[in-house]
Amino acid sequence: FTSTREMELTATYSNGIESPRIQLGTYKIKKAEEVTTSVRSALAAGYRAIDTAEVYRNHCKLASALGEVLPSLGLTRQDIFLTSKLAPKDHGHDKCQEAIDKVLKDLETEYLDLFLLHWPGVQKLDVKDPLNRELRAESWKVLESNYKNNKFRSIGVSNYTLEHMKELLEHCEVVPHVLQIELHPHYQQRELVSYCVAQGIHVQAYSSLGQEGAKSPLFSSEVVMEVCKSLGRSPAQVLLRWGLQKGFTVMPKSVHPDRIKENTDLDFTIPPESMDMLDNLEDQVIEKYAWDPSTVL
What's the whole-model pTM score? Predict the structure, then answer.
């Protein structure tokens, strides 16, 4: 028997794979002790999914933390949902496969639950070079073959625009299961989200809180503060809950055990009028806090 809360907090991809909708983000968590603290606190608080990437440079430390923490909590690798991403320097047929082999080796796992192309462009290549298009298409074919060989239980892309998605769907054999993009009330990418929903592609939101944590302009937004006050919740909880109610997976990152726990305590509902207020924030401010892929050909 699955509670409503558990069902609501699980995404089912188009291929039937289930994934937790609150995941631990690990961007900028590089020091070994911080990685271990973060993983231990998250798994103890009930998180069962971790999102990383080659460019975060923490794969080996994550593997070591999981090797220590999982057995101490009576968990195994199969109990957690692990995601990583291809670095932009590794696009193209040969480089992509070599990079995948390295990721699996560094994470000390035989498979990943989800693997994403992190960026539509190739590092050090001019954004307007048509080779970007060719190389990312080659990388996608490599992801498809690793998916068919059961190295990846699901595959997807990150930071793709609507144009990038349409181009991918024209030539792919396997439609991506996931698109991971920046999403918060200041940057809602509604057309892209609607497109993904129509194509059965699950949307994951990063930078749910903006980029600066407590210094984020979202935290000082009068509307966010008003909703927090009415619900007796923190800005982080309101912004993450907004993402969940939109149907997204959210992936808050923290190295503080109390915040990690707070970020998973999202068992409340933002009423429709408050959701409208948050949705309408884009009328006042449209602000992208992370890098912009729209210039990549």
Answer: 0.95
